[in-house]
Amino acid sequence: MRQRAGIALPAAGIGMFGIGILPELCYVHLYGDRCTIQEHFMVTSAQVRAARGLLNWTVRDLAEKSGVHRNTVTRIETEATTPGHSIAAVQKAFESAGVEFIAENGGGAGVRLRKP
Fold first, then answer.
1. Which residues pair with residue 36 across a beta bridge?
2. How many CB atoms lie within 10 A of CB 90?
3. How confident is the model at residue 116 (pLDDT cuts 50, 70, 90)?
4. How many helices (H) and strands (E) does the chain have?
5. Is residue 27 a contact partner of residue 2, using CB atoms and an 8 Å limit?
6. From CA 97, how far away is CA 116, in angstroms rounded?
7. Is 32 helix (H, G, I), strand (E, B) or coil?
8. Cβ 75 vs Cβ 17: under 8 Å
9. Higher local confidence (pLDDT), 107 or 91
C-alpha cells in the first residue's frame, strides 16, 4: 500500500478504469521512497489520437468531454506534455465512452472499442 495525504492507495494492478491504475502524479511509499507516474500504465500520444479517431471526436469534443483545454489535448497528442492529471482525465473520458487501451505487452500498444 502507498499513502498520500493520509489515504491508502492500492498497489499497481487492475485499476478502476480498465488496464492499469489511473495514474497518480506522485506518491510516497510507507517506507518513504518516492515513485513517479511513469511506473504505471500510461496511454501514449498515438493511442490518444487513435482513440479519438475511433470515436470520430474532434479535439474540441475531447476537450469538452475530459475537462481539459483543447491546447492541452493538442500537446498530449504531439507528446509535448509530461504525464499528469490531464492525460488521466483524457484516458478516463475515452474509457467512459467505451474505449479500451491495450498496454505494450509484446504485441504493441493499441486501442479498441469495448463490446456493448
1. 26
2. 25
3. confident
4. 4, 6
5. yes
6. 11
7. coil
8. no
9. 91
Q: Other CB atoms closer than 10 Å to residue 20's CB: what's the count?
A: 17
* Superfamily of domain 45-113 in the CATH hierarchy: lambda repressor-like DNA-binding domains (1.10.260.40)
User: Are the C-beta atoms of residues 73 and 101 closer than 8 Å to each other?
Assistant: no
Annotated domain spans of the chain: 2-39, 45-113
- For residues 91 and 22, what is the distance between their CA atoms, to the nearest angstrom? 8
Residue with cell 490518444: 48
What would the pLDDT profile of 8-65 be if each residue is shown by its tens digit?
344 444 333 333 434 444 444 444 555 444 345 688 999 999 999 999 999 999 999 9
Q: What is the pLDDT of residues 58-89, one digit of tens each?
A: 999 999 999 999 999 999 999 988 878 899 99
Whole-angstrom distance, CA of residue 73 vs CA of residue 70: 5
